[in-house]
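Entry 0007
Protein: NAD(P)-dependent oxidoreductase
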Amino acid sequence: MKVLVIGANGQIGSQLVTKLHDGGEHDVRAMVRKEEQKKAFEDKGVEAVLADLEGSVDEIAEAMKGCDAAVFAAGSGGSTGPDKTLLIDLDGAGKSVEAAEKAGVDRFLMVSAIQAHNRKNWSEKIRHYFAAKHYADRMLMNSSLNYTIVRPGGLENEPGTGKVSAGENLDRANIPREDVASVLAAAISNENTYRKGFDLVSGEHSIEDALNQLS
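Output (structure tokens):
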């Protein structure tokens, strides 16, 4: 498949681009906002395209042309306010879903947040963030797309271990960003992840086993 990574300059997105580019199973296109980011990927031999999640659906759909799958790995980041969370994590995600339908991209993977599907377990301090993720996920689930929603726990910058736990309702725990990127790469063509959402934390299973054991 040819995969568009939305948010390719982010910490998970950049690792996913590298894994797809080096892995050889899929072709990858990095979607970024700035010309210098685009050039940095192209200097590494990675195809890149400019588009802004605060722009139009048509702009994002144009970036997706020719792709078979899209991964939404973008986020407003912890240093921005609730307004950016709504514009990027909610509206940007929703526009990306619309764009995928418009561009004929059937496969769509979303990076969400652990327990975003379960309101009673949202953190009080960042309820706006969980609400944004919750409704972005719902938009994807109600779309025509063949989706996978990955809901990682607390994100760490430690090296990945390749050992994870994946399931419908997991206790809150941490996971290296590298392992999240590895799970996304593995899930793209894993049919057992199709039309499913799951929490993801560090665990004891190999990524392949964890994904294949999803019910």
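Curator remark: The longest strand covers residues 146-152. The chain has one domain: 2-212.
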